[in-house]
Amino acid sequence: MAIFIASTSVSAALPLYRIVDLGVVDGQFSPNSASAAASINNSGQVVGWSQVTPGTARRASVWQNGAPAELGLPDFEYNRFATSVNDSGVVVGYSDFSPLGNGSQMDSFHARAWHQGQVTDLGQGVAKGVNNAAQIVGHSYSAGAQAPQATIWQNGTATHLASIGTAPNAFAYSYANAINDAGQVVGYSAGPDFSDHATLWQNGQAIDLVDPMDWGYSYAYDINNHGAVVGSKNDQAIIWRDGLAFNLGTLAGVEPDALSSANAINDAGQVVGWIGGNGLERRPFLWTAESGMVDIDSLIDPNDPLRSLVSFDSVLDINNKGEIVGGALFRRNGVEWHAYMLAPVPEPSTWGLVFAGLLALGIAARRKA
After folding, report:
1. Separation CA 330–CA 19 (nearest Å)
2. Which residues are CB-neighbours of 132 under 8 A, at least 6 positions away?
3. Rounded distance, CA 296 to CA 293, Å?
4. What is the pLDDT of residues 142-197, one digit of tens each?
5. β-bridge partners, 153
6. Is the N or C terminus of the chain more exposed, i.e. has fewer CB atoms within 10 Å?
């Protein structure tokens, strides 16, 4: 029993990871190609964008079992981006219909949903999150509106979410970033002081996650199925639980006032984000309540052949298996910006302890019988 308990405590520790270069649609490892991953579901499907050669349109992309494929029509001349995917493979994102990719969101961006080869245009706006009930959230623009409004789409019908502030119409903006399976939505909106306030929408109400009179800026980027919310407040990574905000701290050797942001959280409470800024290099982190903030670089398997070739920049999502995705610089064939996935690698010692623990339990059960 002691061996079994030891094995479970070891397996609960932070894992080592191996790096998977996800490559680019139609040019998986070609020089000058680029890609980035934005989201991963619990089946391991990854979505984001690819650009085969500089100057061409960015393509909404999905990676299945490490192989990239394009979403939507091939040779589409405008930029399009996939931002989130649910466990059924429903992908959401947006297309930019400005010829040079520099138009205003209100005039040029259309929210999109992709599923089983079908593309649904959700109207002017941006889709950022989707849950397993296929409810989609983001922001949209309605006729006569002077600011973007947090929006939920269900069965193709858009509903604007309530605002937390009493700002004039020109300043009553709101943005939704994520939705969990209970239908709770998080994002940010204009507070009474016209600064950005992290916002939770539930049961038809908008809830300010900070003091309504707080003059600081705060943002909510993700929410898990237990209602834990992550984001940032005054440029510090934050987790909100039961209405209370907790600072995620810092990395060893990094100044306490370094900028940081928490970008995603899974149902186990693992959080990914970045810390840096103010003249410091941005460093991605993994945070757990047990281990605190840990530099992702320190968790890469030392035997991984890609370890010395990769510089991580963004870390944008983590699924319930602990798989992590984002974008990184790969120093190979020059310098390439590629989507990546970090896959947990079971340590040999962990497997040995688990096997020994199970064997010990089996022997004990046999003796008892």
Report:
1. 11
2. 86, 87, 88, 181
3. 9
4. 766 678 999 999 998 999 998 886 655 556 899 999 999 999 999 999 877 778 99
5. 136, 158
6. C
